[in-house]
Each structure stands twice: as structure tokens, then as C-alpha cells.
# Entry
Amino acid sequence: MRRKYKDPKPDILRIEELVLGVKSGDIKLPKFQRPFVWTKNDIIKLWDSIYNGYPIGSVLLWLTHEKLASEREIADLEINQREEEYPTNYVLDGQQRLSSLCGPLFWIGKNMKSPWNIVFDLDKEKFIYHNGIDRVSLFPLNKLLDTRDFNKQCSAFESAGDKAEKYYTNANRLLNSIKDYKIAAVKIGDMKLSEVAPIFERINSSGRQLTMVDLMRAATWKGGFDLNNAIKSVKEACERKNFEDIKETHILRSISACVGLGIHKEDIDKLRDCTSDELKLAAIKSVDAYQLAVDFLTSELPLPSISYLPYALQLTYLVEYFNINSDPNIHEREQLKNWFWKTSFTGHFGRANTGLITKNLSYIRDFATGKIDTIPVEEKVNFKGFTLDSFVLNKASSLTYALLLGEQKPLSLLNGGAINLKRALAYTNKLEFHHIFPKAYLKDLKFSKVQINYHSNICMLNLTNNREISNAKPSIYFREIEKRIGDKLEIVLKSNFMNLKAFEAGLKNDYEGFIEIRKDLISEGIKNLVDDEVI
# Structure
């Protein structure tokens, strides 16, 4: 059987060789690695191990002609930029350790709170962080490798009196512990990034798998384009509109679409073949398109945050639409809303596969360019299935139902005041929703958990009113509603998909009758939004 990977070649290298290689840029820290995350305590332990001659493990290097994105700084330590020469070495395993060695040895001493501001206490023979008080017994690690710096630092020991000899001895022991310490550096030969990914995943100490974003961040680095910065720009633009926590993989899909590619893994992989200018333009277009898409979702729909977005693909397609058509007319905006509601109620993207995703992208692009007047959605809304589904806020159907309630601009059942939708739909908080027939009451009547949690038994209610109603049976608290709201009762009921018949069923504690009436009212609400037949 042919071996997929070239034989690893072990070398024994001194620490000094490795850290100089990293600082000079001869050994690169690829951007698909996780950022530097070690704590100050972790760094101190590593240095203590080296000083005492304890093993710290090997490093894995990948010698390749691939031109990948690499780190230009470690925490606040700048890595030298040099003329690119290939093949070059990338660190696959050992990045945290090499960073923890480079930082203290090459720190330039500006930020005293830096994780690299480490000194060696020559009295106690231990590594500590400098507290700002200079003492002759504290030897800065950034004075070790340069001979002139080392000698100059040692010259200060003359003022230490009887301890001078001890300080000279321990300073030289410190220096030799670094210069003499050797690490096994295993090198693997030239291969594609996609081939080396499983090796990285196998040996990575955190068990972290490389994502498509990790791989493409490395593969698309060219001519000043940095995918990480492009994704960050999109995130910041959306966060300014209080639309947070958009996943990096979703942004990558949109960048791919803005280049004119598809949004599947195979299409995204083609980004590596794009020019720097193409990638930069796509990144700029993505920022603009995301802002327009978020504006649409938050102004045309009751969606103040991404938490209640039923399907991530809905945002991806809206971004691509606004990338193509930044100023839709009234008809087009209505059609986009219709498409959003229809795909939500039908669970259209819950069954998404490669073919469906590609077809939908084509539909969106055709609609954006005016080739078609509507965006096709083949499925019909299953009214019965939707209204009798269980209300669980971590699934798409219940997120959709919450948005449907919000679309009605509901008024509080207890006082008729407007529900704060921005707060209620800011994040998935079930405390902003109320079982009209309380759970405990229905449970005592032996209704099943599924029946108790029907969508049709849920309304939107602020936390204070929710607690006031608590587990009171409808025949009791419905009387209180009638007393408090008076002649505005029908208006308040209508805003919550209820009417006087449903109210009367509540007064009789008739749960089955109430559900049947409210199902029909919710059905009418859905029909008005999707403008389609409901089954």
C-alpha cells in the first residue's frame, strides 16, 4: 500500500535555533493554529522545566512550498518580516511552547504588564514576573541571547558584594540551560494543506479539529489579504447593529458567494485560486451586504437578534441577495419577507442537502437580478403539525412561532401594555413566554407533556406578568384579565391570536376547545404572511 505521507524526519535542535527561526520568520506559526492562550503560570512552568532539564516534548514542523497565512506577532511580540522564501517550515505542534520561549527572550520591554516580562531570581533560582522594582538579583530573560547584553547585565553583579559570585554562577547556569537544551524537531515533507490537516488534528493537544475557516485562512493569505481580518470586519459591522455571534463559517460562505462561487465546502475551497484583489473586493462587499441584510431582518421582521433566526442559511441567502441588489423596491421586499416566513414555517432548510442549497442559491441570484418575480419554495405549510408542535426554544419551529407572536405586536394579557419585543427576542429566554393554560394545572388533569407544550398554548408575556399568573387556572385569571382590561379586551386578545370564543373556552377551563379555536386563528395569521395554501 502506498503511504500517504512522507516519512517524518527527526532532528535534534537547540532551543536557540528554534526561537531564532521563529523570530526571524524562518519558522512560521500558521494562522490555522489557535491563538496564543497559555497563562502566565503555564509560561513560568515551561521555563522552570527547561532550567531543571525536564523534558518538554517535541515539536512538529511541516516543510512545504505552500504559501499560507502566518502570525506576525505573538501577544505583544512582533515577529520579523522577511522576504518570502519557499519551501519554509510551519509549526504544526509546539506553537504554544515556542511562543512562550520567543516572547521572554525577544521582548523589547515596553509594556510592563506583558506576559513576556519575566526575570530570573538569581537568589532563589526561580522565574517570576517583574513587579517593577529593579534589583541586581533579577536577570531579565531578554538579556540572555545577545552576548553584549548578557555581559553588561552580569557587570552589575560587582555591586552585590558577597553574592556576586553566586549571581555569576547562576546567570551562567541559566544561559547554558537555554543554549544547551535540545528539542526533538520532527519534520514532515511537502504536501497539500488538505493532506496535512488530519495530521494536525491527530497530534493537536487540545483535540481541536481544523474548521474550513482555519484551512481557508491559511490557504487564502496572499498579497495582504487576511481572511481573519475580513471575517472580523463583518462581525464588527453586524455587532454595531446589535446583531452578534454570527459564526465564522457562515461569513466564509458569504465571502465565497460574493466572489461568485457557491457556498458548499468544494466551492469555498476554490477561494485559494482567487487573486488578492478578488478576495479583498469580496470581503468589502460582504460587509456591505451583511449590514443591509441585518437592516432588513431587524426592520422588516420582528428579529432584533440572531438568536431567533430559524435557519442560518436564511441569512446567507439574504446577504447574497443584498450583495447583488442593494436597493430592492417594495414588491421585492415583500417577496423577501414572504420567502423568509415560508421557509421558516415549512422547515425548508431543515432538510437542506447539497442539491437544495445550490438550487436555492440560484433562485436567490435570479430573483436579485430580476430574472424571476418570486423565490420558489416548493413545500406547503403543515398547519396542524406546526400548531401542535412542542414549544422548545432550541429548535427552528419554535423560534419561528416566537417570531410569529412578535409579528402580531402583542399586548400584555394582564394590563394591555405593549410587550417589549426587543427584550423578549434578544436571546432565547423561555421566561418571556407563557403557557396560557398553565403547565402545572394541565399536568394535574393528566394531559401529556406534548399536549401541555403545544405552540397553540403559548403566548408572549413579560416576566413580571408571567410570575403573577403563575399556575392559576384560566377560569380564575381570565376573570382578572377581563376586569383589568375592560373594553380593550378584544384588541388585546386579537394581538395574541385569541378571540372572545377562545376566551370563553378559557373561562370554562376547556383546554381542547381553546386549542381548536386558537389553531384556526394562528392558521389565518400564517396565511397572511406566506400568501399561500396551508395544509
Q: What stands out?
A: The two ends are 57 Å apart (CA to CA). Residues 143 and 150 are 5 Å apart (CA to CA). The longest strand covers residues 182-188.
